[in-house]
Structures are given as C-alpha cells and as structure tokens.
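Dear U.,

For the methods section draft, I wanted the exact inputs and outputs in one place so we can describe them consistently. I've listed the two proteins in the order they'll appear in the manuscript figures. Please don't edit the token lines directly; just add comments below if something needs changing.

First protein:
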Amino acid sequence: MKRFIGIAISVVWLAATAGATPEPKAPPSTRSSSGTGTSGPGGQMRIAGRLYVGDTAPDFELPSSRDRKVTLSHQKGDWLLMVFASDRDDFREVSAIYEDCGAIGVRIFGMCRDNPQSLRTTAQKLNIPFEMLADPTGEISSIYGLYDALHRTCVPGFVVLDRLGVVKLVVSGQQVPARQMLELTRLTVAAS
C-alpha cells in the first residue's frame, strides 16, 4: 500500500511539473525563432513554421507582379485572402472571385515561388487582376507552413487575415476550388 501511494504521488508530481511550463500555442513570428530549422539545399538552414487561427500573421516584404514591394503590415485595415500555389497559372481560377471578394471588402494576394518578372508576364497574359507575390526562396511560404522543402514548391492553400492582421482561417495542403474559397472567406468575414 505504501508503494502504491508513493507511485501515485510521483505520478501527480510529474504531471504537475510537466504542466508548469506549457508549450507556446504557436511559434513566434520573428525569423530567428519562427519555427524549426531544417536543412535545405547546400546545407542552408530553412525556416519551417505553422500558422494558427488567432495568431498575428508574420510580417514580410516581397516583390509583386506590379513592380513594387508589398509589406504585409502595411495592408492592415483590409481583410486579406492570401492564396498560395505551386504554379503561377493556378491563379487564373482565383481571378474569377476577385470582384466578389472586393464586394465583401477582401483583397487578394497570390503567392508562389516564381520570380517577379514571370509573375508580371503571367498577370498580363492571363489578365489576373490581383497582385501576385514572388517568394523565390520559399522562405515566407515556409514560415506560413505552406512550403514543401523536399520538392521545393509552395503547398496549395490559403489564409484569411482580418483588418488587424490576425489569422482567421488557414487551409493548408489542398487545392480548393475558387468558389469554395470565396464561400469560406465570406463565412469567415461574416462570423467576425
């Protein structure tokens, strides 16, 4: 009986001390500690992160298809739909919901690994009305948890941010049809 009580006290003590230092809900948004590092090509460290609903979206600055730099923190005040794609031609379908998103107060940004010149050419050729952001290293996509380092490509998905830059919806690893993306975004905006 004494042995049982001793074991029970040990288990309770271990459980209490294990819960004393809870893990953070999500990785911080700074580059140096935004996630776990993984070895990339040539031995370079790659950043891998995750994004959770309720987090403030990690800030970034990327070149766009409109020949300018886009800084996420400068977009506060607008609802944002950030669409991640493995190929720039995937943004053609998203163009179909551009006006509907504008009608509910949501701006669209597309993001993929292509360079800004390729995105500019694609935007002109396919008549894409929203800005596409160039993430040629995949670093930003990786911080957002939407990068496949093995295949060196963006993972399809999208993120909805509110006017303060807070994550309200994350869909990762799926190519969602544009109309469903619009409906999920519409519901997210209406629920806030």
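Second protein (the one for the lower panel):
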Amino acid sequence: MSSAALSSQVEVFAQVRDFRDPRGKRHPLPALLSLVFLGLLARIREMAFLERWAEAHRDELKEPLGFTREQWPHATTISRALAACSLADFSAAFLAWVQHVLPAEHRLAAAVDGKTSCQGLDPDGQPVHMLNVLVHDLKLVLGQWSVNDAKSNEPAVLRQRLPELFQNFPLLHSTPHEQASCRARHPLPPAQR
C-alpha cells in the first residue's frame, strides 16, 4: 500500500471519535486504527502478533500512520483503544476510505451468499445465520446482516438492504433485468411495499 493510501486511511480514521481519557493517550487513535486495519489485511487477528508485525515494519509505518513516539504501542494499548471505539464510527470511516481509494469509473460486481457461523452464537446459544455481500475483485465484504435463523429469509433481507448498499457503494451496479427478476421471484409483503 502506498504512503498516499496510508495517509488517506489515517485521515478517514480521524473521523472516529476518541473516547479515551486524554491523560492516558500515548498514541493517536487514527494511527492505532490504521495499524489494526493493516494487520487485518495481513490476516493478523491477535494483538500480540500485530505488535510484533508492526515492530518489524516500524520504518515503513511510523511516519505514514502518524505515530509520534519512539516506543511502539503495546498489544494491550491497541486492545484498549479498540474497545473504546464505536463500531458505527469505525464502519463509517472504513466506508469513506473504500470510496476514496476506488476509482470513480470502476464498476463493482458483488456476490451474495448466506452462511451459518458456528463460532458466532446468538443470545440463545444458536449459530448465527448471516447474509454477506462480497466483491471478489477486492476481496472485500461490503455488507453482512443476520437473517434470523432461516435461509429462506435471505432474499427478503437482501431486498431490504439493497437501497442502503447502493447508496453506500454507488460503484455497485445491477441491470434492470436483474432487479425485475429479483422482484418477481421475491416480492415484498404488502406491508413493506
């Protein structure tokens, strides 16, 4: 990832509200969020591994991400900063970054698939069934929603979420034929029309 892309990522993550106590802040939140995001892109999910990976790439990451201290953030520091963040703020910032880095003329095609998460459980201890919208070219999930226990609910959930998806990702497209076909196969109940 180029320095310009990293800088734009840090600028976008600056939109996330920082709820940490000002007296304990050692590292800027946008830098920490950008580091976590890069770690996730590298398939790093544990903060201790992220800390070691970041230390190994310190020279490339320190300036573009905006770290100001010589001491690199500890895994606990990263975890606590993440715990204080709003998921909605983070999601909105991530969406803004994706829209920023994609060329305006780029058209995206997405796949829709439902999966049951055996590791994610609902309050009753049952596996959660999710509907995912994935752009294969970018290897990026654009949306993920619960379908309330039944695979048969997938089309209805997708129909409800399509306007939001197209608003957030104007580069997605569907043909009028696909839209008509979806409406014919899965009409909305009268109360939702």
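Candidate sentences for the figure legend, describing the second protein: The chain has two domains: 3-101, 111-192. Residues 188-193 have pLDDT under 50 and may be disordered.

Thanks,
Y.
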